[in-house]
């Protein structure tokens, strides 16, 4: 069949107008760490040698001082120091600012000196019930989600206070910062315990005026927990209740990239190593995957 110039041009225009198709992600398990106690969050150290892991060790809201932070080797998943820092309650989200590690601990934001593994301060969030994820902006301000009370707290210049209080946050959990927005992984409006009638999706909260909107079309994704930036536009988010990890486009479209047991919590992504770290809270394990 003879191909005309008009047909070639038409095909070229059509190709330009269609969205680029991305190849599905392939995940291969690298190692699994056992011996942890209900791990909720993992945060790689900038050295790339180890990761901090928060261990709830009991009920997620129990004020029992059982919680602790572990150090785990990123090379092979071996536990380097199981109880590197002890005396926490239900530690969850983690964030680093220089030599300081910030930990969400139910009703307090705990500040730890990583050089000598000592707790420097406990900032109380009055009225908080379930402080969860932690993220830091370019100015060193620390943001913390309270999933139960629909609030975002902020530590700025030594003062810890409510930054945003809105039911539109729909049980905020995972946090990242991108393009002047606080991107929030919403769990969804809880109806009975942690159950929801409609699962959550990603939200974009303007850091400038605190306005809240859906990221993309707002299609429900899951009971979202951990959230990380995957590349220049996309995100990876975990679904704690159903178990699994989703790749989410800026349009809001989501594709499950791995199916897991219930309890897949606050994940971490290491882009240079193409490594995804998933704390399995109910299984008391930390799993590393190679992603391609």
Folded structure, characterized:
The chain is mostly beta strands. The chain has one helix at residues 5-17, and strands spanning 27-33, 39-44, 50-55, 67-73, 79-88, 91-97, 100-105, 108-113, 118-124, 131-136, 142-146, 151-156, 159-165, 172-178, 181-186, 190-192, 195-196, 202-206, 212-214, 224-229, 235-239, 245-248, 254-258, 268-270, 275-280, 285-291. It has a single domain (33-291), classed as TolB, C-terminal domain (Neuraminidase), CATH 2.120.10.30. Helix content is 4%, strand content 51%. Strand 21 and strand 22 form a beta hairpin. It is globular and about 45 Å long. The model is unreliable at 1-21 (pLDDT under 50).
Could you write a compact summary of the structure shown?
With 292 residues, the chain is mainly β. It contains 1 helix and 26 strands.
Question: What's the topology here?
Answer:
Elements: H1 5-17, E1 27-33, E2 39-44, E3 50-55, E4 67-73, E5 79-88, E6 91-97, E7 100-105, E8 108-113, E9 118-124, E10 131-136, E11 142-146, E12 151-156, E13 159-165, E14 172-178, E15 181-186, E16 190-192, E17 195-196, E18 202-206, E19 212-214, E20 224-229, E21 235-239, E22 245-248, E23 254-258, E24 268-270, E25 275-280, E26 285-291
Antiparallel strand pairs: 1-26, 2-3, 3-4, 4-5, 6-7, 7-8, 8-9, 10-11, 11-12, 12-13, 14-15, 15-18, 16-17, 18-19, 20-21, 21-22, 22-23, 24-25, 25-26
Overall strand count: 26
Overall 3D geometry? globular
Radius of gyration equals 20 Å
Q: Give the CATH architecture.
A: 6 Propeller
Q: Count up the helices.
A: 1
Write the CATH homologous superfamily.
Answer: TolB, C-terminal domain
